[in-house]
UniProtKB/TrEMBL annotation:
Residues 143-378 form the Glutamate/phenylalanine/leucine/valine/L-tryptophan dehydrogenase C-terminal domain. The lineage of its organism: Bacteria, Bacillati, Actinomycetota, Actinomycetes, Propionibacteriales. CDD domains: NAD_bind_Leu_Phe_Val_DH (cd01075). SMART domains: ELFV_dehydrog. Pfam families: ELFV_dehydrog, ELFV_dehydrog_N. It comes from Nocardioides soli. GO terms for biological process: amino acid metabolic process. The active site is at residue 79. One of its GO terms (molecular function) is nucleotide binding. This is Valine dehydrogenase (NAD+). Signal peptide: none annotated.
Length: 383
């Protein structure tokens, strides 16, 4: 067993969840609660093996710790994966069984949407679990977090353009978007509206057709390899992780890499290869934090709403309908997500001043906050 858990030795807790009746096989990884309870989405994916799923959840949960820290949130990092094809395996019973496992952690981990899961799934999970965010608007939630995820990536791209070309506009630039699902399609909209020339690819033909229908000027290429080989100014990986391999970096003509995918660097050292080739990399967990900011605002609003509903002696208080609905504020979350522009600039400026790749600069900023604030709090425990 020690060999299995060695890759996650820095994690606080790793839970394997199994429910034979529904076919649930899941892994929940809590990387750090130094800044607060761990928050991260649940990914539903047909992993080839449990080992592959474990590797993914460990990497993703670690990234969430850094993402929350760099975004200035009082949250830790966690993630969960459900092993299976969501198109054939997902069911209300399975999601509710999964919710019971999340509930058993007592609030050390909050779940939300990710690849293969949606706000309606969070509503099912919430039937058995109090620690869910990213719920549908009809159930008092923030709804689809991909909206602000894409907006944050766009802000990070504008910051990178400012460093690379002296101004934030993408007008006239050729941007290649790999993956036009929930986040990538919204990003395409921002780019087209800003005047960029957009090239896309996706393994899902329906996803490509939706983008083609909505944005007739967008050009489609057959594969990610073809996109990487195209003449681009910006490359935006918006699908699964490990997008930036040695082969991809060698083939890229883009001046900037900035996308929504998590864990884009396939292995340590890729960040140095990007720098050596003169490619400016906007670290993934820096620019794709908009969705986290959105669901965190939902949690914050829920906490504020609960505190208004009781007086200091614990007695229930009546409040107006407008007060009860004040919890989540899209405008507030949108404004906070706009701050990704400044955060990305700060990372790129630190990278230049310290003479290190941006990925290392981002890590330093995140680790500094986890260290300085975390030592005051220690491991987060439910109250």
């Amino acid at each position: 067993m020690s060999d299995v858990f060695e890759p996650g030795s820095e994690h606080e807790q790793v839970v394997f969840a199994h429910d034979p009746g529904t076919g649930l096989k899941a892994i929940i990884a809590i990387h750090s609660t130094a800044l607060g309870p761990a928050l991260g989405g649940t990914r539903f994916h047909p992993y080839a093996s449990t080992a592959d799923a474990l590797r993914d959840v460990l990497n993703l949960s670690r990234g969430m710790s850094y993402k929350a820290a760099l975004a200035g949130l009082d949250l830790g990092g966690g993630k969960a994966v459900i092993i299976g094809d969501p198109a054939t395996t997902k069911s209300e019973a399975l999601l509710r069984a999964y919710g019971r496992h999340v509930q058993s952690l007592g609030g050390r981990y909050y779940t939300a949407c990710d690849v293969g899961t949606f706000s309606v799934d969070m509503d099912d999970i919430a039937r058995e679990c109090s620690f869910v965010t990213g719920r549908t608007v009809a159930h008092g939630g923030a709804g689809d977090s991909s909206v602000l995820t894409s907006y944050g990536v766009f802000q990070g791209m504008r910051a990178a353009a400012t460093v690379a070309w002296g101004g934030p506009s993408l007008e006239g630039r050729v941007v290649g978007v790999a993956g036009v699902g929930k986040v990538g399609s919204h990003l395409v909209r921002h780019l087209v509206e800003d005047g960029a020339s957009v090239v896309v690819t996706d393994v899902s033909e329906p996803a490509v057709e939706r983008v083609r229908s909505d944005f007739p000027t967008v050009r489609v290429v057959a594969s990610e390899a073809a996109l990487v080989a195209a003449q681009l100014d910006v490359y935006a990986p918006c699908a699964m992780g490990d997008a930036l391999t040695d082969t991809v970096v060698e083939a890229l003509s883009a001046r900037i890499v900035c996308g929504a995918a998590n864990n884009q660097l396939a292995h340590p050292g890729v960040e140095k290869s990007l720098e050596e080739r003169g490619i400016l990399y906007a670290p993934d967990y820096c620019v794709n934090a908009g969705g986290l900011i959105q669901v965190a605002d939902e949690l914050e609003g829920r906490s504020l709403r609960s505190s208004r509903d009781e007086d200091p002696e614990g007695r229930s208080l009546r409040s107006s309908r407008s007060e009860r609905l004040e919890g989540f504020s899209f405008e507030r979350a949108h404004q906070r997500t706009t701050g990704i522009f400044d955060t990305t600039l700060r990372v790129l400026e630190l990278a230049a001043s310290d003479g290190v790749p941006p990925a290392i600069a981002a890590d330093r900023l995140a680790e500094r906050r986890m260290r300085e604030v975390g030592r005051l709090r220690g491991m987060w425990l439910p109250r």
